[in-house]
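Repro case for the chain-ordering regression, as requested:
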Amino acid sequence: MEVFQHLVFGFSVALSVQNLLYCLAGCLLGTLIGVLPGIGPLATIAMLTPITFSISPVGALIMLAGIYYGAQYGGSTTAILVNLPGETSAVVTCLDGYQMARQGRAGPALAIAAIGSFFAGTVCTLIIALFGPAIAELALEFGPAEYFSLMLMGLVAAAVLAQGDMVKSLAMVVMGLLLGTVGTDVNSGWRRFSFDIAELADGIGFVVLAVGVFALGEIVANLGDSKKGAVFVAKVGSLFPSRDDLKRSSGPIIRGTLLGAFFGVLPGTGPAIASFSSYMLEKRISKDPSRFGHGAIEGVAGPESANNADAQCKFIPMLTLGIPASGTMALMLGALMIHGIAPGPTVMTQRPDLFWGLIVSMWIGNLMLVILNLPLVGLWTSLLKVPYRMLFPAIIVFSCIGIYSLSNNAFDLYLTAFFGILGFLWMKFACPPAPMLLGFVLGPMMEENLRRALLMSRGDPMVFLSEPISLGFIIATVLIVIAMMLPALRKRRGDITD
Amino acid sequence: MKSELRNNKDFWAGMMFFWTGVGAMIVARHYPFGTTLNMGPGYFPMVLGGILIVFGAFITFRGLRRNEKMQGPWSLRALIMLPLSIVAFGILMRPAGFIPALAVLVFLSAASGREFKFKEVLFLTLFLCVLSVAMFIWGLGLPYPLIRKF
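-- result from build under test --
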């Protein structure tokens, strides 16, 4: 029962007063931004990464993770009560959740969403604890060729499976890889793309890029958006679901969890795809599909479990292989690296406190969210009354102070402003920025592994095809691309995006 | 034809990728390329630049064929004012100090929105200044002078 020991160890780390506080802070903050439309977890995590420098890496990761899954909870709260998905993953929850709220059953809808999410969180914690070490052990055998192919697969899959245009996503990955080469080349000491600017010798700051593209770009886009409307907040009423509610929800919760866990480990598939698939599945196997869209509790239970399972399982490739499966995970990976921890399979053996502490704290965080959120629902919805024109200057202020504190250098701020403009242009051109961030984070590692692999094979590029594991990754990459080019799948994907 | 091109999202996306690729290859041509056995610092950027050019050309031509329009408004005001506010903050930080730089940042960024209510912004500035000083200077101990005398 090694798993059991590991989990006990994880509890000892996660239950320290400090880490509990970080977890709580992260969860509350996550719920807050989940409730507020217009700021996502990606921008918030980017913004807060500099502030976490002063705390321990474990505490930092625990807090950032709390923001990430807290946002899922918050997003569903507003989806149910105000028909306003705080996060994209909660779009599906609006369909039946808001209908339930209008029928005066907001309480049970919120409760089931929380219970489903908590169940999914528990299962996924166990999945990570059971399979994480095995995956990491396997990955320890990987040489540079395997790593290069794995990263290639991760990047291509992330770009191809993500929402949006496939070709542009791939181009954005390359854009990110190119941005990752800026700065001093570790092997030759050559300064690449630094244009004799001293500040660029260390490369582009990862927080600078993320805050610029995600936080700033998003705000500029929001400010141009004029659609606004009166917010109707449904009454919560009794929180307790009836026995019938529970009976109806148990199946969807289990199926949603499994579906979400499956999509979770795949790169590029955001929680929106998991929750949408779960909704479609429940509707298809339901005895009375016509109830969906008119307040069917299954339509809340399944998708809510699925998106939480997806969010948690996204940690598996990040923690065990050092490969981020989504933009948010790329940020987490970046935060790890800034804290001086080399991501990859060695994290588990060298920093067991980080690995197990983080996993257990995610379970504790889920528990906190269930206990805290339901009583606080009133507070969260009242926050919706804060107008965006008061909100966004605050975001800008925190971002700027955070960035300036990185190296006490104004140049980072100029660069942030530049990436803000670029981020907005990318949005206008419908070029998805998340794959770019993945490429940016993985770029330097990818180049290094490519160089080493070719050095070891004496310059023979066939090494990527002759090593069996590497060949497997390459074949998988090709299969993913071919599969996505098939007209049938392409159409399905289009449906989901709409 | 010309007015149609102006709003063609794929055309502009493709052009951006294409010229970024060209620019990268032009800058990187001076870096030692090395060989496959021993990659130089120019190897990776050159290859990436080349790939970007191919992608860019493909997306541009696809854009000319499909001619899909860009979505959403341009929000020019925010696009100019918001980056400007951040640059101003960067410029003011050292010579003027934390509080003046912050006040300018809040004012300029608030001015990039559609509605600008002077009293409200004044209150917001005050609130954010107090909050930031408490959190970052006293709380986290960032070593910035609050106000510097000219």
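Ordering looks correct now. DSSP finds 22 helices and two strands in chain A.
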